[in-house]
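Margin note: ligand = glutathione.
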Amino acid sequence: MLVNGTWQENWHPVQAKDEEGRFIRQLSSFRHWITPDGSPGITGKGGYKAEKDRYHLYVAYICPWASRTLMVRQLKGLTNLISMTVVNPRLSDNGWQFGGFPGANDDDLNGAQYLHELYSQADPTYTGRATVPILWDKKTRTIVSNESADILRMLNNAFEAFGQQGPNLYPADLADDIDALNEVIYNNLNNGVYQAGFASTQQAYEEAYDKVFLTLDELEARLSDGRAYLFGERLTETDVRLFVTLVRFDAAYHGLFKCNRYTLIAMPYLHAFMQRIYAINGIAETVNIEHIKAGYYSIKALNPSGIVPVGPAII
Ligand SMILES: N[C@@H](CCC(=O)N[C@@H](CS)C(=O)NCC(=O)O)C(=O)O
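Resulting structure:
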């Protein structure tokens, strides 16, 4: 991680933990918003007006938080407005790095070797982890946001003047329900699988495992009435947020994170839901199973040999 703008060599890939060995995820630090006219968003400073070719996403295909921003970029028809760079899926001793893996890019925009260089460029006194995704402003050469939940919301509606397409992923009539279900899915699934995987006590692991499968059971039951998406026939950001965890489940979380009561294939409604979203135009491009497997299984604290499993044969 960076301390006062300088990279610390002996950083730990396993994030913070509490006294009972529960994994704790760092809060994001850059919380500005792109808005149609450059006025400030709900947090941070103004000055980030929606413009063509101004913004760039730095992402990792392994990362569910980064992938959800890529999904919304596709769903909202923003691929020609917002460019992107994919990091190497394997976390190095210097954090995320550019190039050196099929499908990973060099940083043609800023010429950085490691992602943390962009954090210190944006804030020379930054202390914290250098995480993906980053929403980068090419004009002022800084980070607009490193919080994917906010990035989903801004990509949903900031670019309407540019003929932005796709469904409204956060419609006003569902906003409260979306917020409530997002919270459950974040705590129990998106982050719940990490809490199982990075638990350092049996109790913390079992607590996380139970939440993961209890929530998957609830969602399986919810989808069993034949609805296409979590709130019925309309695709929302909550579906996107669930999808990124489901699509990694059998390839990474079932094995490496010990979330192994069932594979996703054993939960037919959730599996069909995942396949339905995967089939939406542009979504398959945001999923790279080779990056997902290589990335998760390169976490030395969990898999010292670095061996990447061959399967699963079907996702
Ligand atoms: N709050 C962030 C979390 C992002 C996050 O935790 N990204 C992970 C990859 S999945 C990361 O970059 N980890 C590197 C590190 O912690 O050093 C978001 O949702 O945007």
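The chain has two domains: 2-162, 172-296.
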